[in-house]
Design a protein that fits this description.
By secondary structure, this protein is mainly α. The chain is about 85% helix and about 0% strand.
Length: about 220
């Protein structure tokens, strides 16, 4: 019985890794789509986020099956309950990527769009890494990796504030660039939210290791 249960837990971990990989791919696609002349990458990102909805349902079903059909001990309960919380954050990351993809498709209609995306690219890279690292921390019971993710959130927040400040200056000095600048601020805010969800995942990974959920900063 325990062997079967452990195999199910292993499959749960694999499904969480797959969903995190999908989230990371969606982040990469929407970021690339922002400087693409067509909408193909944005559409691919939307397709990927829709597949994440099914992944969420599959993971939730597996967790409930484990809770109802097996007799998990305290550590197992932490693993399963944390997965149920994490999968919600992963699904919301997919939602944020879908929102960016929608904006990207609107930007593709404007061939004169040429905003500086360097801060947004850096935010995207950090956010994607945070998602992957947070799930690594959960699967490998690595509290140090989880704490690394929590620390990176400050860097993403600083990049968001920098991007917002630069874009506000752009709006004040160039009214014609206002629409483009507002779109970029919204995109940056979505990426900041993605990093916040990654922090939530990392905190649940810490809970799996320690049995204590860190207090949000």
């Amino acid at each position: 019985m325990r062997k079967t249960f452990d195999a199910e837990l292993h499959e749960l971990g694999a499904e969480m890794i797959d969903m995190a990989a999908a989230a990371e791919d969606a982040i990469d696609l929407v970021t690339a789509s922002l400087t693409s002349p067509d909408r193909r990458q944005a559409r691919q990102a939307l397709d990927l986020t829709r597949s994440m909805d099914q992944m969420e349902r599959d993971i939730e079903n597996r967790c409930l099956r484990l809770l109802l059909q097996q007799q998990p001990v305290a550590r197992d309960l932490r693993t399963i309950s944390a997965a149920l919380k994490m999968v919600t954050d992963l699904e919301r990351i997919g939602d944020q990527c879908a929102n960016i993809a929608e904006i990207s498709m609107l930007l593709a209609q404007n061939p004169t769009h040429s905003g500086d995306m360097s801060n947004i690219r850096t935010m995207s890279q950090k956010a994607g890494y945070m998602v992957k690292r947070a799930i690594f921390a959960y699967v490998n019971r690595d509290a140090d990796a989880a704490n690394e993710v929590v620390g990176l959130d400050d860097e993403v927040d600083e990049l968001f504030l920098k991007e917002k400040s630069e874009l506000v200056d752009l709006i004040l000095n160039n009214r014609e660039a206002a629409d483009q600048a507002i779109d970029q601020i919204i995109i940056a805010k979505y990426l900041e939210r993605i990093s916040d969800h990654a922090v939530n995942i990392a905190q649940w990974a810490i809970y799996c290791v320690t049995g204590t959920l860190p207090t949000p900063a």
